[in-house]
Amino acid sequence: MATEEEAAPAPAPEEEKEAAKEEATETTQAEEEGKEEAAEKADEAKEKAAPKEESKKGSSKDSKGKKNGKAAAEEVDPMDAIVEMMEERQFPRAAAELSKLLKKNPEDPIMLHNLGCVYTELEKWEPAEEAFTQAYEAQKKDGKYNDATLFGLATVLAEQGGMGKLLQSEALLRDCLDRAIAKEDHGIMETFRSFQALADCLGKQKRWGEASEAYEQAFRMSSHMYPEDHACNKQGKFLLERSQRLAKIQKMIRIGLWTATAAVPIFCAYMWNYVGGPSVGELFSMMTGSNITDAAPSAIPGSDLPDLSSLDIDAPPRG
Protein backbone atom coordinates (compact mmCIF):
# COMPACT_ATOMS: atom_id res chain seq x y z
CA MET A 1 0.00 0.00 0.00
CA ALA A 2 2.73 2.38 0.92
CA THR A 3 4.43 1.77 -2.23
CA GLU A 4 1.30 2.50 -4.24
CA GLU A 5 0.72 5.81 -2.41
CA GLU A 6 4.31 6.78 -2.84
CA ALA A 7 4.10 5.84 -6.44
CA ALA A 8 1.01 8.12 -7.06
CA PRO A 9 1.65 10.62 -9.87
CA ALA A 10 2.23 14.40 -9.09
CA PRO A 11 -0.38 16.96 -10.28
CA ALA A 12 0.23 18.46 -13.68
CA PRO A 13 1.37 22.09 -13.93
CA GLU A 14 -1.68 23.08 -16.03
CA GLU A 15 -4.06 22.14 -13.23
CA GLU A 16 -2.05 24.31 -10.82
CA LYS A 17 -2.44 27.29 -13.15
CA GLU A 18 -6.18 26.81 -13.39
CA ALA A 19 -6.51 26.63 -9.60
CA ALA A 20 -4.49 29.82 -9.20
CA LYS A 21 -6.72 31.58 -11.70
CA GLU A 22 -9.85 30.50 -9.86
CA GLU A 23 -8.44 31.77 -6.55
CA ALA A 24 -7.55 35.12 -8.19
CA THR A 25 -11.03 35.55 -9.64
CA GLU A 26 -12.59 34.73 -6.29
CA THR A 27 -10.47 37.36 -4.54
CA THR A 28 -11.29 40.02 -7.18
CA GLN A 29 -14.99 39.22 -6.89
CA ALA A 30 -14.78 39.55 -3.12
CA GLU A 31 -13.00 42.88 -3.46
CA GLU A 32 -15.61 44.16 -5.91
CA GLU A 33 -18.42 43.05 -3.62
CA GLY A 34 -16.72 44.86 -0.75
CA LYS A 35 -16.42 47.99 -2.84
CA GLU A 36 -20.10 47.81 -3.82
CA GLU A 37 -21.16 47.41 -0.21
CA ALA A 38 -19.02 50.40 0.77
CA ALA A 39 -20.52 52.49 -2.03
CA GLU A 40 -24.06 51.52 -0.96
CA LYS A 41 -23.32 52.50 2.62
CA ALA A 42 -21.90 55.83 1.45
CA ASP A 43 -25.03 56.49 -0.63
CA GLU A 44 -27.23 55.69 2.35
CA ALA A 45 -25.23 58.09 4.48
CA LYS A 46 -25.59 60.84 1.85
CA GLU A 47 -29.32 60.28 1.60
CA LYS A 48 -29.64 60.61 5.35
CA ALA A 49 -27.59 63.80 5.34
CA ALA A 50 -29.38 65.32 2.31
CA PRO A 51 -32.55 66.46 4.15
CA LYS A 52 -30.43 68.27 6.71
CA GLU A 53 -28.50 70.09 3.99
CA GLU A 54 -31.70 70.94 2.13
CA SER A 55 -33.22 72.29 5.30
CA LYS A 56 -30.11 74.38 5.81
CA LYS A 57 -30.31 75.64 2.23
CA GLY A 58 -34.01 76.36 2.62
CA SER A 59 -33.43 78.32 5.79
CA SER A 60 -30.63 80.27 4.10
CA LYS A 61 -32.89 81.02 1.14
CA ASP A 62 -35.66 82.16 3.47
CA SER A 63 -33.28 84.42 5.29
CA LYS A 64 -32.03 85.82 1.98
CA GLY A 65 -35.63 86.33 0.82
CA LYS A 66 -36.44 88.19 4.01
CA LYS A 67 -33.40 90.39 3.54
CA ASN A 68 -34.32 91.09 -0.08
CA GLY A 69 -37.89 91.87 0.97
CA LYS A 70 -36.65 94.36 3.51
CA ALA A 71 -34.34 95.91 0.94
CA ALA A 72 -37.17 96.12 -1.58
CA ALA A 73 -39.41 97.72 1.04
CA GLU A 74 -36.67 100.23 1.76
CA GLU A 75 -36.24 100.99 -1.97
CA VAL A 76 -39.93 101.75 -2.67
CA ASP A 77 -40.37 104.81 -4.88
CA PRO A 78 -41.77 107.65 -2.73
CA MET A 79 -43.71 108.93 -5.75
CA ASP A 80 -46.03 105.93 -5.44
CA ALA A 81 -47.23 107.14 -2.06
CA ILE A 82 -47.64 110.67 -3.41
CA VAL A 83 -49.67 109.44 -6.37
CA GLU A 84 -51.94 107.58 -3.95
CA MET A 85 -52.42 110.79 -1.98
CA MET A 86 -53.35 112.63 -5.16
CA GLU A 87 -55.82 109.91 -6.13
CA GLU A 88 -57.38 110.20 -2.67
CA ARG A 89 -57.45 114.01 -3.15
CA GLN A 90 -55.15 114.61 -0.21
CA PHE A 91 -53.51 117.50 -2.03
CA PRO A 92 -52.09 119.42 0.96
CA ARG A 93 -50.22 116.31 2.15
CA ALA A 94 -49.01 115.59 -1.37
CA ALA A 95 -47.73 119.16 -1.72
CA ALA A 96 -45.84 118.90 1.57
CA GLU A 97 -44.23 115.58 0.60
CA LEU A 98 -43.23 116.86 -2.84
CA SER A 99 -41.69 119.98 -1.30
CA LYS A 100 -39.57 117.77 0.98
CA LEU A 101 -38.37 115.64 -1.91
CA LEU A 102 -37.59 118.69 -4.03
CA LYS A 103 -35.24 119.99 -1.34
CA LYS A 104 -33.03 116.96 -2.09
CA ASN A 105 -33.45 117.13 -5.86
CA PRO A 106 -34.75 120.59 -6.83
CA GLU A 107 -34.54 120.02 -10.60
CA ASP A 108 -36.50 116.77 -10.86
CA PRO A 109 -38.97 117.44 -13.73
CA ILE A 110 -41.41 114.71 -12.66
CA MET A 111 -41.76 115.99 -9.10
CA LEU A 112 -42.01 119.60 -10.30
CA HIS A 113 -44.74 118.67 -12.77
CA ASN A 114 -46.72 116.82 -10.08
CA LEU A 115 -46.29 119.74 -7.69
CA GLY A 116 -47.78 122.02 -10.36
CA CYS A 117 -50.74 119.65 -10.72
CA VAL A 118 -51.29 119.63 -6.94
CA TYR A 119 -51.23 123.44 -6.75
CA THR A 120 -53.65 123.58 -9.69
CA GLU A 121 -56.10 121.37 -7.80
CA LEU A 122 -55.69 123.65 -4.77
CA GLU A 123 -56.30 126.68 -7.06
CA LYS A 124 -52.98 128.23 -6.09
CA TRP A 125 -52.29 129.65 -9.52
CA GLU A 126 -49.03 131.52 -8.95
CA PRO A 127 -47.19 128.62 -7.22
CA ALA A 128 -48.56 126.29 -9.91
CA GLU A 129 -47.20 128.58 -12.63
CA GLU A 130 -43.79 128.62 -10.94
CA ALA A 131 -43.73 124.81 -10.58
CA PHE A 132 -44.75 124.19 -14.20
CA THR A 133 -42.21 126.74 -15.43
CA GLN A 134 -39.41 125.07 -13.47
CA ALA A 135 -40.52 121.67 -14.75
CA TYR A 136 -40.43 122.96 -18.33
CA GLU A 137 -36.94 124.41 -17.83
CA ALA A 138 -35.72 121.10 -16.35
CA GLN A 139 -37.19 119.22 -19.32
CA LYS A 140 -35.52 121.70 -21.64
CA LYS A 141 -32.12 120.86 -20.12
CA ASP A 142 -32.74 117.13 -20.56
CA GLY A 143 -34.08 117.62 -24.09
CA LYS A 144 -37.29 115.74 -23.22
CA TYR A 145 -40.45 117.84 -23.40
CA ASN A 146 -43.74 116.78 -21.84
CA ASP A 147 -46.85 118.15 -23.54
CA ALA A 148 -48.78 117.80 -20.27
CA THR A 149 -46.44 120.33 -18.65
CA LEU A 150 -47.08 122.88 -21.41
CA PHE A 151 -50.82 122.29 -21.17
CA GLY A 152 -50.76 122.69 -17.38
CA LEU A 153 -48.79 125.93 -17.63
CA ALA A 154 -51.19 127.30 -20.26
CA THR A 155 -54.20 126.43 -18.10
CA VAL A 156 -52.73 128.14 -15.04
CA LEU A 157 -51.90 131.29 -17.02
CA ALA A 158 -55.46 131.47 -18.38
CA GLU A 159 -56.92 131.07 -14.88
CA GLN A 160 -54.94 134.07 -13.62
CA GLY A 161 -56.36 136.36 -16.31
CA GLY A 162 -54.87 139.58 -17.57
CA MET A 163 -54.21 140.21 -21.24
CA GLY A 164 -50.51 139.41 -21.02
CA LYS A 165 -50.99 136.01 -19.39
CA LEU A 166 -53.97 135.22 -21.64
CA LEU A 167 -51.85 135.84 -24.74
CA GLN A 168 -49.09 133.62 -23.33
CA SER A 169 -51.67 130.93 -22.61
CA GLU A 170 -53.05 131.20 -26.15
CA ALA A 171 -49.58 130.75 -27.66
CA LEU A 172 -48.87 127.67 -25.51
CA LEU A 173 -52.28 126.15 -26.26
CA ARG A 174 -51.81 126.59 -30.01
CA ASP A 175 -48.43 124.86 -29.65
CA CYS A 176 -50.06 122.00 -27.70
CA LEU A 177 -52.76 121.76 -30.37
CA ASP A 178 -50.19 121.44 -33.15
CA ARG A 179 -48.34 118.72 -31.23
CA ALA A 180 -51.56 116.80 -30.52
CA ILE A 181 -52.72 116.96 -34.14
CA ALA A 182 -49.32 115.65 -35.27
CA LYS A 183 -49.91 112.52 -33.15
CA GLU A 184 -53.05 111.73 -35.20
CA ASP A 185 -54.98 108.84 -33.61
CA HIS A 186 -52.76 108.78 -30.52
CA GLY A 187 -53.49 112.43 -29.72
CA ILE A 188 -57.28 112.56 -30.02
CA MET A 189 -57.94 113.32 -26.36
CA GLU A 190 -55.13 115.87 -26.23
CA THR A 191 -56.54 117.57 -29.33
CA PHE A 192 -60.00 117.76 -27.77
CA ARG A 193 -58.66 119.23 -24.53
CA SER A 194 -56.51 121.75 -26.41
CA PHE A 195 -59.48 122.96 -28.48
CA GLN A 196 -61.60 123.28 -25.34
CA ALA A 197 -58.95 125.19 -23.38
CA LEU A 198 -58.15 127.42 -26.36
CA ALA A 199 -61.83 128.32 -26.74
CA ASP A 200 -62.03 129.23 -23.04
CA CYS A 201 -58.91 131.38 -23.35
CA LEU A 202 -60.27 133.22 -26.41
CA GLY A 203 -63.58 133.73 -24.63
CA LYS A 204 -61.80 135.41 -21.72
CA GLN A 205 -60.23 137.77 -24.28
CA LYS A 206 -63.75 138.57 -25.63
CA ARG A 207 -62.77 137.22 -29.04
CA TRP A 208 -66.06 135.41 -29.45
CA GLY A 209 -65.80 134.78 -33.19
CA GLU A 210 -62.57 132.78 -32.81
CA ALA A 211 -63.84 131.21 -29.59
CA SER A 212 -66.98 129.91 -31.33
CA GLU A 213 -64.82 128.25 -34.00
CA ALA A 214 -62.72 126.48 -31.35
CA TYR A 215 -65.86 125.45 -29.41
CA GLU A 216 -67.33 124.06 -32.62
CA GLN A 217 -64.27 121.87 -33.22
CA ALA A 218 -64.36 120.62 -29.63
CA PHE A 219 -68.08 119.85 -29.84
CA ARG A 220 -67.63 117.90 -33.09
CA MET A 221 -64.96 115.76 -31.47
CA SER A 222 -66.95 115.14 -28.29
CA SER A 223 -70.05 114.14 -30.30
CA HIS A 224 -67.99 111.34 -31.86
CA MET A 225 -66.31 110.37 -28.60
CA TYR A 226 -69.27 110.29 -26.20
CA PRO A 227 -72.99 109.40 -26.36
CA GLU A 228 -75.45 112.13 -27.28
CA ASP A 229 -76.78 112.53 -23.73
CA HIS A 230 -73.29 112.71 -22.18
CA ALA A 231 -72.58 115.68 -19.92
CA CYS A 232 -69.57 116.67 -22.04
CA ASN A 233 -71.77 116.98 -25.14
CA LYS A 234 -74.40 119.00 -23.28
CA GLN A 235 -71.82 121.40 -21.92
CA GLY A 236 -70.08 121.68 -25.29
CA LYS A 237 -73.36 122.47 -27.04
CA PHE A 238 -74.24 125.12 -24.47
CA LEU A 239 -70.83 126.80 -24.75
CA LEU A 240 -70.98 126.70 -28.55
CA GLU A 241 -74.44 128.31 -28.75
CA ARG A 242 -73.48 130.93 -26.16
CA SER A 243 -70.29 131.88 -28.00
CA GLN A 244 -72.16 132.09 -31.31
CA ARG A 245 -74.78 134.46 -29.80
CA LEU A 246 -72.09 136.64 -28.27
CA ALA A 247 -70.17 136.67 -31.55
CA LYS A 248 -73.27 137.96 -33.40
CA ILE A 249 -73.90 140.65 -30.78
CA GLN A 250 -70.26 141.67 -30.86
CA LYS A 251 -70.37 141.89 -34.67
CA MET A 252 -73.47 144.11 -34.60
CA ILE A 253 -71.89 146.41 -32.02
CA ARG A 254 -68.76 146.73 -34.14
CA ILE A 255 -70.78 147.53 -37.27
CA GLY A 256 -72.66 150.19 -35.31
CA LEU A 257 -69.44 151.72 -34.02
CA TRP A 258 -67.87 151.76 -37.47
CA THR A 259 -71.00 153.38 -38.95
CA ALA A 260 -71.10 156.01 -36.23
CA THR A 261 -67.41 156.71 -36.65
CA ALA A 262 -67.87 157.31 -40.38
CA ALA A 263 -71.14 159.27 -39.99
CA VAL A 264 -69.92 161.78 -37.41
CA PRO A 265 -67.49 163.72 -39.68
CA ILE A 266 -70.00 163.69 -42.55
CA PHE A 267 -72.73 165.14 -40.33
CA CYS A 268 -70.38 167.79 -38.93
CA ALA A 269 -69.40 168.94 -42.44
CA TYR A 270 -73.02 169.18 -43.48
CA MET A 271 -73.95 171.29 -40.45
CA TRP A 272 -70.92 173.55 -41.02
CA ASN A 273 -72.01 174.36 -44.52
CA TYR A 274 -75.61 174.74 -43.40
CA VAL A 275 -74.82 177.47 -40.83
CA GLY A 276 -72.55 179.33 -43.30
CA GLY A 277 -69.18 178.64 -41.79
CA PRO A 278 -65.98 179.72 -43.55
CA SER A 279 -64.72 177.70 -46.43
CA VAL A 280 -61.63 175.55 -46.41
CA GLY A 281 -59.58 178.26 -48.14
CA GLU A 282 -60.62 180.86 -45.61
CA LEU A 283 -59.79 178.51 -42.78
CA PHE A 284 -56.40 177.87 -44.33
CA SER A 285 -55.65 181.60 -44.63
CA MET A 286 -56.70 182.09 -41.04
CA MET A 287 -54.43 179.27 -39.92
CA THR A 288 -51.44 180.52 -41.94
CA GLY A 289 -51.92 184.09 -40.61
CA SER A 290 -52.12 185.89 -43.99
CA ASN A 291 -53.50 189.58 -43.75
CA ILE A 292 -56.18 190.21 -46.33
CA THR A 293 -56.46 193.95 -45.41
CA ASP A 294 -53.17 194.64 -47.25
CA ALA A 295 -54.92 194.03 -50.51
CA ALA A 296 -56.75 196.79 -52.47
CA PRO A 297 -60.32 197.48 -51.37
CA SER A 298 -61.60 196.44 -54.76
CA ALA A 299 -59.85 193.11 -54.25
CA ILE A 300 -61.83 192.42 -51.14
CA PRO A 301 -64.78 190.25 -52.05
CA GLY A 302 -68.12 192.00 -51.54
CA SER A 303 -66.62 195.51 -50.99
CA ASP A 304 -68.48 198.50 -52.56
CA LEU A 305 -65.88 201.18 -51.65
CA PRO A 306 -64.14 203.07 -54.52
CA ASP A 307 -60.50 202.53 -55.32
CA LEU A 308 -58.68 205.60 -53.87
CA SER A 309 -55.15 204.42 -54.37
CA SER A 310 -54.56 206.69 -57.41
CA LEU A 311 -55.52 209.95 -55.59
CA ASP A 312 -52.84 212.35 -54.25
CA ILE A 313 -54.17 212.82 -50.79
CA ASP A 314 -51.07 214.60 -49.41
CA ALA A 315 -51.08 217.48 -52.00
CA PRO A 316 -51.78 220.97 -50.47
CA PRO A 317 -55.08 222.67 -51.33
CA ARG A 318 -55.10 225.43 -53.97
CA GLY A 319 -56.09 229.04 -53.04
- Total E-strand runs: 0
Mean pLDDT across all amino acids: 78
The topology string of helices and strands comes to HHHHHHHHHHHH
Indicate the radius of gyration in whole angstroms: 55 Å
Low-confidence stretches: 1-13, 48-61, 293-300
Structural class: mainly alpha
Question: So how many helices?
Answer: 12
Strand percentage: under 5%
Main β sheet profile: none
**Residue share in helices?**
over 70%
Distance between the termini: 242 Å
- Outline: elongated
Please characterize this protein's 3D structure.
The chain is mainly alpha-helical. The chain is 76% helix and 0% strand. The protein contains twelve helices and no strands. It has helices at 2-6, 13-74, 78-87, 91-104, 109-121, 125-142, 147-160, 163-182, 188-204, 208-225, 231-274, 280-288. Helix 10 runs antiparallel to helix 11. The radius of gyration is 55 Å and the shape is elongated.
What is the structure about, briefly put?
By secondary structure, this protein is mainly alpha-helical. The protein contains twelve helices and no strands. Helix content is 76%, strand content 0%.
